[in-house]
Every structure is written in structure tokens, then in C-alpha cells.
Amino acid sequence: MVAHTLVVGGTGMLSGLCEALAGDGGRLSFLSRQACGPDGFACDYYDPAAFTAALDAAVARAGPINLAVAWFHTLKIEAPRLLAERVEGRLFQVLGSAAADPSHPWRLETAQRVAEDLPGCDLRQVVLGFKAEPTGSRWLTNNEISAGVLDAVRSDRPLTIIGQTKPWSAKP
User: Which of 22, 39, 80, 127 shows a CA-CA span of 20 to 30 A to 65?
Assistant: First the structure.
């Protein structure tokens, strides 16, 4: 059991993950634009001061962050690094399918830099793919994403791909 789990983006596609993690025991916090309740901290992660204040509030309420799962639409902001600096354990970085684009093979490595020189942060990556079906391909549903991220957390692999990313030409 993890003492304090923090999820960034826990009211959208990761809401099912939050429900599952809440059943695991420990303390759960989540940060999002529409967070509510005692476990939720509303913030805009594009605003470093607001994001830092929300992190501080979560840590003050539930203690050090031992496990974090974070979905940021972009890593070209301060929030991913601000979170990584606060994690004292595992950080699961949820990445869009573009991280698997074979014409940009450096994207996964670039994304890993969020935890560079942070010995307390043990980074894991989860890449969201797509599903190929007889009628064509489609993006993953929120339930598929939550279940896949939960599996990644429980199996603790360094890299997890949910769905598929190959062949790249088959993406929706």
C-alpha cells in the first residue's frame, strides 16, 4: 500500500483510475481544473504558482507523494518538473500517442528529462496508443486508458503502451 498517491488529471480520462486507487487504501489526492471534494485540488497546470500551491496543499493534507500519475497535454510547461521534484517514489508519466511516432524517436527520451537529476523520483512512462478493429482504428476510451494505467502502476514496468502504436500508419 502506498501512503500518498497523487493523480494529475484525475477528473477526466483518469477518473476510473482514481476510483480504483481509492479502493487500494492509503491517501489519494488529485489535481485538475475541476477538482472538488476533500481529495481534489483545483488548479491550472499552465500556471506554475497555482500548480505549486495545489501541490503544497495536497502534501500538507496527505503527506509526501509516494506515487504520482500525471497526464499533461504538453511537457513544455513547468508543471511536470515541479511535480517530479516533489515525488518521493514512483512517477507514472502518461504520454499521448505522439510519443511513439517513429518519425520523432527522441520524444520518449526527451520526456524522461522531467525527472533528470532527481534521485527520489523513479520515472515510469505510459504511452497511449489506439485500437485497430475490423471497421478501422479508434482512439482509446477513458475506461481503457484508466484500466491500462492501473495495470502499469500495479505491474511497475518502466514503459507501458496501452493499445497499440504499430503500425503507425494505422492510427485514426
Answer: 127
